[in-house]
Recover the amino acids of this structure.
C-alpha cells in the first residue's frame, strides 16, 4: 500500500513540473495542488488515520 502511494505521489510530482512547452503558463496551480494533497497525507499519517 505504501509503495503504491509513494509511486503515485512521485508521478504526480513529475507531472506537475512545468517543463513542457504546453504547461509553461500554468503557474503554481499544479504544484500547489500537489503540495496540498501531500500535506493532507502527511497530517493523516501523523494522526494515525493512515496505519503505519
Amino acid at each position: 500500500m505504501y509503495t503504491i502511494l509513494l509511486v503515485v505521489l512521485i508521478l504526480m510530482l513529475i507531472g506537475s513540473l512545468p517543463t513542457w512547452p504546453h504547461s509553461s503558463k500554468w503557474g503554481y496551480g499544479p504544484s500547489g495542488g500537489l503540495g496540498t494533497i501531500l500535506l493532507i497525507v502527511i497530517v493523516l499519517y501523523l494522526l494515525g488515520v493512515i496505519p503505519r
About this structure: The helical segments are 2-16, 29-47. The chain is about 65% helix and 0% strand. The CA atoms of residues 4 and 10 lie 10 Å apart. The mean pLDDT is 77.
